[in-house]
Each structure stands twice: as C-alpha cells, then as structure tokens.
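Fold sample X.
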Amino acid sequence: MAQIKRKSLILSTIFLSRRYFPAEKRRKPCYNLSKTFREATRMKKTKNAAALILAAVMTILPAYSLTAGNRIGRPLISAPATKEDISEETPETPSGGNDTNDSSGTDADPAPDTPPRPDEPDDNTPDEPSAGDDTNNGGTKDESKDDESQEETERLYIVCSGNGVNLRTGAGSGYKAAGTAQKDESYAVLAKLNGWYCIYYRGKQLYISAAYAKEFRLKKSENAAIEAVLEAGYALIGTPYVFGAVRLHDGKGNFYKNFTTNAFDCSSLTQYAFYKGAKKLLGTTTRIQVKEGKAVKRSELQRGDCIYFTNASRYYNTGVERVGHVAIYLGDDYILHTSSDYARIEKLTAARKKYYIEARRFV
C-alpha cells in the first residue's frame, strides 16, 4: 500500500508541475520537483492527479531524463538527425575519396536538400603555356610556320619507293586508278592531303599514297618566271617521248595548229615550257637552241638553265652537230627532260655528265 501511495504522489507531482509552473521553469526539473511535491501533499488528491498525469508523461519525462542522465554522467544516445538538422553550409563529402559524383558505382542518390560538392579539376588539366614559349598544345611544336617558310624558299618533290604504284583520281584507295608510278620516279608535289600527295601526271592532277613516296626538296629560284617555266614542265611528267614530235611554234612566233601535248621530244618540251611559263620563244631543235640565250659556265649553273648534251651517235661529231639532247636544270644535279620513254625528273647520271657540252640561260 505504501508503494502505491508513493507512485501516486510522484504522478501528482508531475501533473502539478505542468499546472503551476511555466514552461521555462519546467526545463529545470530539480527545481520544479521540490515545489510540486509540497503542493501535492496539501491537495491529497492522488487519484485524480494520477488519472490526469498520464497524458503529460511523454512531454515531461524526456526533459527530466535528459537532466538526470547528464547529472549522473551516463552517455546519452541522441535521436537520428532529420532533414532539418543537416546544415546546408557543410555539404557531405561522398565516401570513397572521389572528387566527383556518380563515380562510386552505387545507385544511391544524394540527399535532395544537401548541396552537392562542386567538381574539382582533375590532374589532367593542361597547364597554361609559359610566357615566351614558342610551342602550342602543351609542348607540341607548331610546324605550320616552318612549312610555310619552306614553301617560300623550297620546292617539294617525292620519289616513288615501289613498283607499279597506282596514281588515283582522288586522295584515297577508293578512287579510280588513272596511271602508275615506278620505283625511283620523281614528281613535283602540288599538295598533301590525308596521307596522299597530289602530283601532275600527263597533264592531270593525280594522287599517290604517302606510303610509297619519299620527300625531297630543292631550293627555288628568286625569279618567278623560272618557277613558272618549271611548273609548265612538271605538268608534262609521264607524257610519252616521240622523236620529232610536233612543236608548239616555228621558233618565230608562228604556232602550229596540229600541236598536241600528248607527245614530246627533248627540244619540243623545253620550247613548250619556256613559252608557257615565260613567253620565251626558243628554236625548234637542240642545235638551234644551243646558239640562243646566254652561255653559262658549268660551275655557275642555276635553276632553270638548259643543259645541252651529246650522245653516243653524235659523240665524235664537231660543232653544233655534236648536240643531241637538252634538259632543264633544277639544282643539286636534278634535271627535267624527256628521253627515249617519257618526260621525267631524275638525277644526272655519271654517263650523262660525260656527255655534257654547255649550258644556256634564257630567262
């Protein structure tokens, strides 16, 4: 019986604490407890107080328990954090140490009210070029200016490295083959495109794969007219040789109506190229041309000069009758001419050097 009365007294004490003390004082359970205990003793209405106290237990008991727990030093387990408890100024960092979202491979979405952590730059961010550096793209040398400079002073050529290499109408193996190149044959390059070289062949622009070509360069002449003469000659590479082919003109400006670019011999090729490129009239044969223009010493040969040779059948002749062949000099012992088969660019051979007679300059 004494135990029942004691419980009733405690319940009535809690009830009266809510009735006679404001909320701010109820936050101090130890202070409120002594006051309400004395009031409960006076009222002696424990039964009524017990019935009413049950509704208030859930609100008073947490505060009382929290203070009592702290007072005796017991560790308390706080309630789980709700959405409102998370600070928006301190976003959570994804686990695993990754700096970016969606990199852990899980399907869990970040909390909708938690601001995502900004992506941080990775280690692959390119460094800014240093002042005064002459390279672009993180150290890759820009060769475009060098190429432009070379194009101004040098002419690009290629030499074929295979036999029966197709010359196609476009820059690709899917284009029609319109000719073939043989090993060691050389061509002047008009352009480079996607691993293909554009060249002249029999008056047409065709393409050869870079896989079967090696580049070389020759210094250009400062005289634009000379370069124009050579360009006219490059277009004839591959054109068949025909002895006594029809000339462009008679050497005096009278043009032949039946002239064609389908065939040339050595002197008709030089006559055509010099008129086409520099409007210069040359004679119809090598023995006439060798007496025209300006004589040039062998040691002073320049690009665009014409070299006249003898041959086996004329070797023992005298005077101009020894002359039997002509070629246009390109530099570094390279010549442009046609001889026995078709027009071509090639290096002077030791045998042909022995047949050298003299050189003439027309431009």
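Fold sample Y, listed below.
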Amino acid sequence: MQTSQHRGFTLIELVVVITILGILAGFAIPKFIALDTTARVATVNGLAGSVRGAAALARGLSMATSNTASVTMEGATVNLLNSYPDATATGIAAAMNTSGAGDFTFTAGATAAGTLRAPVRPRRSQRQRRPAASVAGRHPRGGMTRRQMDATCRRVDSTRLKALGAAPTARVHAPVSP
C-alpha cells in the first residue's frame, strides 16, 4: 500500500491563488484610493453647507428683526451686507462660530488662488437612473402620462361642475401643453 503525502502546494495551485489575489487587489486598491478623495470632498461639502446654513440663519434673523445692518447670533454681532453676512471676521466668520474648528483656518477677506465649488446635486452622469416602467400605460418615471393626466382633470372637473349644477361638458382648464 502506497500512501502519497502532499507537503505544500503544486505550482498550478500557487499560480491560481496568486492570480485570484491579483484580481482582488486590482479592484480593492482603487476603491480605497477613491475613499480618501471622497472623504476629502465630503469634508469640503460639509464646510460649504455650514457656510450656506450660517448665511441663511443670519438672513432669516435679519428679516425677522427688520435689521439689515447687523444681527446678534449666539452672543456675537454679525455684520450684514444686503441681509447676508459680509466677508469679514465680523460677518460670515462670526455667523459660523468657527472657534475650535481645528482642521480649518478661516481667514476673512483673504483671496484664494482658485474657486471652491461644492455642487448641490450630482451631475447627470452620476445620478442613478430609474428603470423603465413595468406597468403598461405608466410614465417611465413613475408618474402619469400627459393623456392620463388630462383624462383625470376632465373627470374631476365634470364631477365638480355636476355638484355645482353646471353643464358637465364645460371645461374648467385646458390640458397641459407639451
């Protein structure tokens, strides 16, 4: 009786394992590199949202108090220009309350080499596309077609007119034009 004892892997097994690890690394490494960039973009977008929020709060307070020169937010006087915080240390910096921000340095009135633009919504190519409608007669985006909307408006209008005692053939409003 002959027993074969395998000690280790064959060359083919090693090549297969290394190939699988290479393929996995090819997908995983770019993903982790993209996460770093995504985190930085999210941080800047968060800061831009804070600036917009502080400006909106200052404007709302300005409109509520009918004071377009300055408002007091959390004990700090915020100077305004056209009911929005101005670009000085007593303007948007005071409205944001940047004390203890840590990672960010806010210099009021400083000029930058470039422009920071934080998009509010993703570009068309980055948005998820909705699947086509599976129900016959429905609009691909889930709403009613123009013909269905017109028919619904006519039904509602004729019902209202009957309740008022008017002729049901009268039309309250015209269909939506394309």
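Sample Y note: The helical segments are 11-65, 92-96, 146-164.
Also: Residues 11-65 form the longest helix (55 residues).
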